[in-house]
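Hey, can you fold this?
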Amino acid sequence: MTAHVAQYTLDVDDLDRMAEFWSAALGYTVGRGDDGSAKLYPPPGRPGPTVWLQGSGTPKNGKNRLHLDLVADGDPAAEVDRLVGLGARHADVGQTGSEGFVVLADPEDNEFCVLDGPPS
């Protein structure tokens, strides 16, 4: 037996803002729960886990222990610019500048990376 990643869950303070950011960032559609949550679904025919945004009502505290690594469909630098335009910001987690990725943080400071290419 093995397991596979089916869903990524993120506790959020501002559900509307985070659903707007992550749905635009990933190209996912938003399904709203009546329990203060939202589920993001990948486009039809595109594999990928769903993302559950769980309203926590509290801000993030400390560095993420788990984060997303994104791969752009095109130019990684252009994707970083697009994500920053959506509300992400560059984040410093101790990188040296020679990594094959850029570290960003979403509007609630959750770190994620944009890889220069698919993981090897």
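Oh, and this one too while you're at it.
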Amino acid sequence: MDDDVTPSMIPLHLVFDSIALLQFQRKFVGDGLEEAVKVSDEIARAFRDYKIPIIPITTDDVDMATRTFQRLTVKGLI
């Protein structure tokens, strides 16, 4: 494993690269191997399956679109 990666860490770039994730998992050693693979699979799946909300703002009025975007972000809707 990389020097700066501890056994309890998974590099974020691996969650979207299945082959690289498998190669990373093959480096796991010791007790808890099955659990480590399971947890890393669950983390990768959570990132891959996360749905990003898309709210279209269709207007030619830039000020209206800006205000709408500000209201949505302030209220935590996006």
